[in-house]
Amino acid sequence: MHKNNVLILMILIFSCLCSRCSSRVQSNNNYESATDSVRTVLKGLNFPWEILWGKDDHIWMTERKGKISKIDPTTGKIIFSASVDEVVSNNEGGMLGMVQHPDFLNNGLFYVVYDYDSGNGYREKMVQMKFENNAIKPVKTIIENIPAAVIHNGSRLWITSEATPHIFMTTGDASVQPNAQSTSSVSGKVLRFNLDGSIPADNPFANSPIWSYGHRNQQGLVVANGIMYASEHGPDIEDEINIIEKNRNYGWPTVKGPCNEAAEKTFCTANNVKEPIWSSGSSTIAVCGLDYYNSDQIPDWKNCLLMCTLKDASLRVLKLSNDGLSITNQYTFFKSRFGRIRDICVSPAGKVYLCTSNGGSADVLVEISKL
């Protein structure tokens, strides 16, 4: 074959391959640096689930069997630890998400989600708690009797920075897929409450905490520049990152990832479905904790979503467009270095903290301060 013809053929093949992968912004760069600065803050953990940078400049952590701890990020010393007896850990269920009240430093209030035995089956609740005199106590149950299961329980929490803040909660479908589409069920949803637990008057359904629906199992939630992002587990394909909007349907269980199959297109058109801004395509990497990074501490990660993965055992760094409405590139860090990564938080100084989900007291909390 003539050399020019070979060159043309190669260009055509490359163009076809690029057009097939461009919608998912696939980039498999696995960056490892001999000069990165990774420090183990704490060892011997057992299925930590939430880590957050507290308003008191300590790391607050939940562990799935019911423990809540306060950790000095510099020394790794556990300053405070207590267990909630009502928590029942059952496979993926147990103590899950946590977030602090905006005025935590003055009122000690925070919120946790956990699974429990209701006497009428395995259930989930969100509880407002108070930290005072180096002890915690429940103050108010915000919502209870949410269906729970050994899989698909959610649940992340986020409090907005509006003048009148609201608390958002993700719930999984608890392995009953049709409930995700039912607006009479709180399974497979994003829920929205006032901080006292009442239902905001501007929620899309009267007297209902439902904000969005059609979700499978969301385990990451963050707001950046006024946009709410959630990471969601797919089945055996199509993990997602979604922009969460009021009264939008996210398609599960009919739609997996983007609306690209004939039946999915029909459903999406008829049901106000919002497509993900990123999906994993033909496999699952088991996405989990999510945070936003915009610090000069690690310049390459500025304006990126940082997403933990369990099955893929890596940290995904997802570059956002200037308007935050799309992802322009993705990179993979720390592949198989720590094992399954459950959650992430970022300090005001730009240091990144990860916790693993390997179990058996083999889990760690690590600090990343540079690359």
Description of the structure:
Strands 1-22-21-20-19 form a five-stranded mixed β-sheet, with no helix packed on it. A four-stranded antiparallel β-sheet has the order 2-25-24-23, with no helix packed on it. The chain has one domain: TolB, C-terminal domain (Neuraminidase). The protein has 371 residues and is mainly β. It has helices at residues 3-21, 104-107, 262-270, and strands at residues 30-31, 37-45, 48-53, 59-63, 67-71, 78-83, 95-100, 109-117, 122-132, 135-147, 157-159, 166-170, 189-194, 210-213, 218-224, 227-232, 240-243, 278-279, 287-293, 304-309, 315-320, 327-333, 341-346, 352-356, 363-370. Strand 15 (218-224) and strand 16 form a beta hairpin.
State the order of secondary-structure elements, H for helix, E for strand.
Answer: HEEEEEEEHEEEEEEEEEEHEEEEEEEE
The computed structural class is mainly beta
Looking at the overall shape, the CATH architecture is 6 Propeller
Oligomer: single chain
Please tell me how large the radius of gyration is. Answer: 21 Å
Determine the strand fraction and express it as a percent band.
Answer: 35-45%
In CATH, what is the homologous superfamily?
TolB, C-terminal domain
End-to-end Cα distance, whole Å, is 47 Å
Count of DSSP H/I helices: 3
